[in-house]
Amino acid sequence: MKKTVSGALAAAAVVVFAASADAQTTLATQNVNATVTVGNQARITVTGGPVLFADSDPDLVNPIPAGAPVSVAARARVAPTQQLNVTVSANNAFFDAGTDTIPVTGLLWTVGGAPSFLAGAMATTETNVAQWTGPANQAGTQAYTLANSWSYAPGTWTVILRYTLSTP
């Protein structure tokens, strides 16, 4: 009989210890913060250049269409209220800087793609190509044309077009 009582006490002790172990796991909790730091990021990619215009008779072809459109992709991670602009500007007021007969203002574009892209005309100051507010991944195309004229000086002329993604 003595064995039976000690067996019953041992079983009761196991139950008490098991209940005590469960209470300890719920009392021992700790929180750890998980934090991410997100900064402003921006990238612009322009493909499809150079913008080439074929020699054309001004009476037959005016304006001259460029051979292929330019693709512009702009990605920005900014605050939801931050305005972003993609601009383009020419490095010179004329394609032919020495003779000043082909003005960059005759260089126009139409757009395709995201609704944030804007048609426009080239200048030596920054001109908007796209504009939006908040973080986004925008993509569009510019189809360039150049006004054609009998007054252009013969030769091969170049102007550099600089694209910029910025906040005002």
Fold topology:
Elements: H1 2-27, E1 41-47, E2 64-65, E3 70-77, E4 83-90, E5 107-113, E6 120-121, E7 127-133, E8 136-146, E9 161-166
Antiparallel strand pairs: 1-3, 2-8, 3-8, 4-7, 4-9, 5-6, 5-8
Instruction: Kindly provide the radius of gyration, computed on alpha-carbon positions and rounded to a whole number of angstroms.
Output: 35 Å
Mind telling me which CATH architecture this is? Sandwich
Domain count: the total is 1
What's the CATH first level?
Mainly Beta
What is the molecular shape? elongated
CATH topology: Immunoglobulin-like
Secondary-structure-based class equals: alpha+beta
What is the H-and-E element order? HEEEEEEEEE
- Kindly report how far apart the N and C termini lie: 93 Å
Task: Kindly estimate the percentage of residues that lie in beta strands according to DSSP.
Answer: 25-35%
What's the total helix number? 1
| Mean pLDDT over all positions | 87
The major β-sheet equals: 6 strands, antiparallel
Q: Can you give the helix content as a percent range?
A: 10-25%
Note poorly predicted spans. Answer: 8-17
Number of strands: 9
